[in-house]
């Protein structure tokens, strides 16, 4: 990871320096600046900046990769359309005059080009990866000795052409003759670079014993980072620099002729305006720092990697109707197609996609990579080729979308989406694509609304919007930090570890401590909040309940991998682990009934529980708090000699609950006149009784297993 980040950082810095000629989209690509006055242009740029900051931060926070190209284009379009409509309204012109302000053709080309690139990138990625795996298989090391130089020549020559093409289109200080020579001799450059890289690859393999796929991945990472800097960095700072350059143009005019902002037309933006290199370097440095230290950036990376990983694991996205339908019909098409091929051919193809464990699992304690170096190299080379082709034919596309969809296509072609995971992966891809569409709609609407607010609110609106943006960013950072901490605290065990019997005891103890602590704290909150009849706090209790449910679901998802990772076949140990989780789940479900019924009671504005009822519930809760406190300490310290005493204490709690049930029955006969209160009170006592019984069963199970484990060792 460190090596990749260093290489990517260098690519970003180099790409930043070479990006000065790519600012046209922000200045004149979407609208015609010569028809806008300086004060109108500044409103457009300011609305775009505020929208872009909030929009991109939102998608980064939820871990969804989105396109800065799409966001900037549609923000510029939305803000420019609104300002144009306001200008038309003031002059009394009709809507037909809108087309003179907006470059509709350019915006349409960008949108259509991006849409087409999504499907092309996925399809090409799937086909190329399928063919590559047929040739190399997962045990590709032997094949690389013979055809690795040829593969390296093809890959590295494609990347070289990509770098040259991006460079000649970006570097403004290159002589025009050099640029024309490169563009006129594309095939010759590709041919010479292919021969050169084949020779270099052969030397690296035979003489220096280098892993050619690692070389391709490193160079490909540099090339793509350079492309992202030349595209995304421009989108990030293009609007800011265009606004700054607009101010400089007006300032010069004001100093010479005293022209006002509302009188100065921005035709100066229509020409070539060079961007100072120091601004590009600063922006590139900020991108590099973010790449290294931003947890949100890492969160976005995890989304793409997890969707494309080889094999099963924790799935982030839930299946939906669309993903289920697509997978169902895909399975049907696959089965139909397989009937066309003879059985020997099918067996031969399937054998090429069977990978040994050693291809992915290395050492104990070292996590398996999401995919191997062959797929990594295909991802980088294909993304480079497709972006190069789009650039050479001046087709608008998004580097984010192309790279992501190539990765999804190669994972599909590599059979990473099996029957166990396909519906989740397809759902994830649809979620990401849906977010791209949402990006365009939200960007257009939000930028338009903000420009309208600034138009009428002037400086006051600007001040309020800037404060709002700052507060939103801070709140988002705090919320994300809290989520990262929660995920770190609930980090799942490493599935590549070989688990011993002692480790099962330790793992189960940690699970018990985690769940029991959560149950104890939540039960205290619910009883107190119910006593105060506080709906807002009970809503927070519901959220805590959902977090407990997530913990249990994650533990259950890992049962298969946990049992499979045992160092020896041990049915009793596996059964113990499964039963432990079952008891913990039962306890969480009992608490869920208590939490949700309490929230429903208060939400429906039913009568408060009686003082005596609240007092009795708090008495039970205090007894359980004392027992669970000792239980947590025992399991944290791995000292289980007190289990028998804990069981005895819980039986006393059961006896108290039984007495309280009898007491409530008598209360109903004498004084109780609220059926809703009785229903809630009985429900809480009965579920607390179930919770206590289950925890006793859990302790008895653990005591038996612990005694057996002690005898073995």
TrEMBL record:
It is found in: Membrane. It comes from the Bacteria. The keyword Glycosyltransferase does not apply. GO terms for cellular component: membrane. It is a multi-pass membrane protein. The chain crosses the membrane at residues 35-56, 68-90, 110-136, 148-167, 187-205, 212-230, 273-293, 373-393, 429-453, 459-478. The keyword Membrane applies. Pfam families: PHO4. Its main location: membrane. GO terms for molecular function: phosphate transmembrane transporter activity. Signal peptide: none annotated. GO terms for biological process: phosphate ion transmembrane transport. Keywords: Membrane, Phosphate transport, Transmembrane, Transmembrane helix, Transport. PANTHER family: PHOSPHATE TRANSPORTER (PTHR11101:SF16). Belongs to the inorganic phosphate transporter (PiT) (TC 2.A.20) family. This is Phosphate transporter. It comes from Psychroflexus torquis (strain ATCC 700755 / CIP 106069 / ACAM 623).
């Amino acid at each position: 990871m460190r090596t990749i980040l260093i290489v990517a950082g260098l690519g970003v810095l180099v790409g930043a320096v070479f990006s000065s000629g790519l600012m046209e989209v922000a200045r004149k690509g979407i609208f015609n600046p010569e028809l806008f006055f300086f004060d109108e242009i500044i409103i457009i740029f300011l609305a775009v900046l505020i929208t872009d900051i909030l929009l991109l931060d939102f998608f980064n926070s939820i871990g969804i990769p989105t396109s800065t190209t799409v966001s900037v284009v549609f923000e510029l379009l939305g803000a420019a359309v609104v300002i144009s409509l306001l200008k038309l309204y003031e002059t009394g012109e009709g809507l037909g005059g809108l087309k003179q302000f907006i470059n509709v053709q350019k915006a349409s080309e960008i949108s259509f080009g991006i849409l087409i690139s999504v499907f092309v990138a996925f399809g090409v990625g799937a086909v190329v990866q399928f063919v590559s795996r047929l040739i190399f298989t997962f045990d590709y090391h032997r094949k690389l000795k013979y055809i690795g130089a040829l593969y390296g020549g093809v890959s590295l020559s494609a990347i070289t052409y990509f770098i040259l093409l991006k460079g000649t289109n970006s570097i403004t200080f290159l002589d025009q003759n050099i640029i024309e020579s490169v563009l006129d001799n594309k095939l010759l450059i590709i041919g010479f670079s292919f021969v050169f890289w084949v020779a270099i690859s052969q030397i690296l393999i035979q003489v220096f014993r280098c892993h050619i796929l690692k070389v391709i991945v490193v160079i490909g990472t540099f090339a793509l980072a350079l492309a992202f800097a030349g595209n995304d960095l421009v989108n990030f700072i293009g609007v800011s620099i265009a606004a700054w350059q607009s101010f400089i143009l007006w300032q010069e005019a004001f100093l010479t002729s005293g022209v006002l902002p509302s009188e100065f037309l921005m035709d100066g933006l229509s020409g070539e305006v060079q961007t100072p290199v120091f601004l590009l370097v600063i922006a590139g440095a900020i991108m590099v720092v973010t790449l290294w230290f931003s947890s949100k950036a890492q969160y976005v990376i995890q989304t793409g990697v997890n969707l494309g990983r080889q094999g099963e694991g924790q799935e982030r996205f839930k299946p939906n109707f669309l993903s289920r339908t697509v997978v169902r019909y895909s399975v049907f098409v696959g089965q139909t197609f397989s009937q066309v091929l003879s059985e020997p051919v099918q067996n031969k193809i399937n054998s090429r996609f069977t990978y040994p464990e050693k291809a992915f699992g290395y050492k104990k304690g070292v996590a398996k990579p999401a995919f191997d170096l062959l797929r990594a190299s295909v991802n980088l080379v294909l993304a480079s080729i497709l972006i190069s082709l789009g650039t050479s034919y001046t087709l608008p596309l998004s580097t984010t979308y192309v790279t992501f969809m190539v990765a999804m296509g190669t994972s599909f072609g590599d059979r990473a989406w099996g029957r166990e995971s396909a519906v989740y992966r397809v759902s994830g891809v649809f979620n990401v694509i849906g977010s791209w569409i949402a990006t365009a709609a939200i960007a257009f609407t939000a930028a338009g609304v903000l420009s309208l607010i600034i138009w009428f609110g002037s400086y006051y609106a600007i001040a309020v919007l800037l404060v709002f943006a700052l507060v939103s960013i801070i709140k988002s950072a705090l919320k994300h930090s809290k989520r990262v901490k929660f995920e770190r605290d609930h980090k799942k065990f490493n599935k590549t570890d070989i688990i011993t019997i002692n480790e099962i005891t330790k793992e189960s103890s940690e699970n018990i401590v985690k769940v029991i602590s959560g149950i104890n704290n939540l039960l205290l909150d619910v009883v107190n909040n119910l006593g105060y009849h506080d709906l807002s706090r009970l809503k927070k209790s519901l959220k805590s309940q959902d977090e407990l449910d997530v913990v249990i679901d994650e533990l259950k998802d890992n049962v298969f991998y946990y049992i499979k990772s045992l160092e020896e076949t041990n049915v009793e140990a596996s059964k113990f682990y499964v039963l432990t989780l079952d008891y913990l789940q039962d306890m969480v479900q009992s608490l869920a009934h208590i939490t949700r019924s309490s929230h429903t009671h208060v939400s429906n504005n039913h009568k408060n529980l009686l003082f005596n009822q609240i007092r009795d519930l708090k008495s039970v809760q205090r007894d359980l708090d004392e027992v669970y406190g000792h239980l947590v300490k025992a399991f944290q310290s791995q000292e289980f000699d007190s289990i028998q005493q804990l069981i005895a204490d819980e039986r006393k709690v059961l006896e108290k609950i039984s007495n309280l049930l009898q007491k409530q029955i008598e209360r109903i006969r004498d004084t109780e006149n609220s059926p809703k209160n009785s229903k809630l009170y009985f429900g809480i006592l009965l579920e607390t009784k179930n919770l206590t019984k289950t925890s006793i069963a859990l302790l008895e199970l653990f005591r038996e297993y612990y005694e057996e484990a002690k005898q073995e060792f």
